[in-house]
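Quick one, probably user error.
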């Protein structure tokens, strides 16, 4: 009975992600090592678009209510067309119907470029907003009385108020700088409606993705 249930779970998992490329469930040991439960393996032979300077997108179907987290990318073998006339490039982004690079921003896979051998999710990242220290100048009124001496006809000196002036003094009030951390969710999404994961591979302008004669990359995901 236990074996039958395990087989049913595996079949259901494969049905959720049926597509042309090689999507595999990970074993319990592999899942413990990677933090993922699915891996999509893309080999150079999977890139079949023959039009120059044209991206090819591989897709994986995602059902509604699925929670998807990108764990990481592993470049097993750098992609190469063996063409010495150009500096080769093969950039990949991974996203969905709403955001084409939600899970992975443009990453170089070609040996002619600066290939990236691994990238990982930064789901515990975030942004820090800093408000700098500010100063405010405040003014306080000061009342000044001015007097003048007058002499009357009997030569008696008296003090007489002639005018009143108001001067100001200034003071500075400093407000301390503040920093606010906002947690970010990078490479994670819960799908309220069905969608696809889109893996877009873009070659350099002189070549087609099908020109690659070597290369393999793995994309690891945790899907619930």
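Nope, works fine. Designed sequence:
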């Amino acid at each position: 009975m236990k074996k039958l249930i395990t087989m049913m779970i595996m079949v259901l998992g494969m049905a959720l992600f049926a597509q042309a490329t090689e999507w595999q469930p990970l074993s319990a040991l592999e899942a413990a090592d990677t933090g993922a439960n699915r891996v999509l393996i893309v080999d150079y032979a999977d890139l079949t678009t023959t039009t120059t300077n044209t991206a090819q997108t591989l897709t994986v179907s995602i059902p509604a209510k699925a929670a998807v987290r990108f764990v990481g990318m592993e470049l097993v073998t750098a992609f190469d067309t063996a063409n010495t006339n150009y500096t080769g490039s093969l950039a990949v982004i991974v996203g969905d119907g709403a955001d084409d690079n939600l899970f992975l921003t443009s990453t170089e896979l070609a040996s002619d470029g600066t290939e990236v051998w691994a990238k990982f999710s930064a789901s515990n990242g975030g942004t820090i907003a800093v408000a700098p220290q500010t100063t405010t100048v405040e003014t306080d009124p000061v009342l000044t009385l001015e007097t003048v001496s007058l002499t009357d006809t009997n030569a008696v000196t008296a003090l007489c108020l002639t005018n009143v002036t108001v001067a100001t003094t200034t003071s500075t009030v400093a407000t301390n700088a503040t920093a606010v951390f906002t947690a970010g969710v990078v490479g994670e999404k819960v799908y309220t409606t069905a969608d696809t994961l889109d893996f877009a591979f873009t070659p350099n302008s002189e070549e087609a993705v099908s020109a690659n004669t070597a290369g393999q990359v793995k994309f690891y995901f945790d899907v619930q």
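The chain has two helices and 14 strands.
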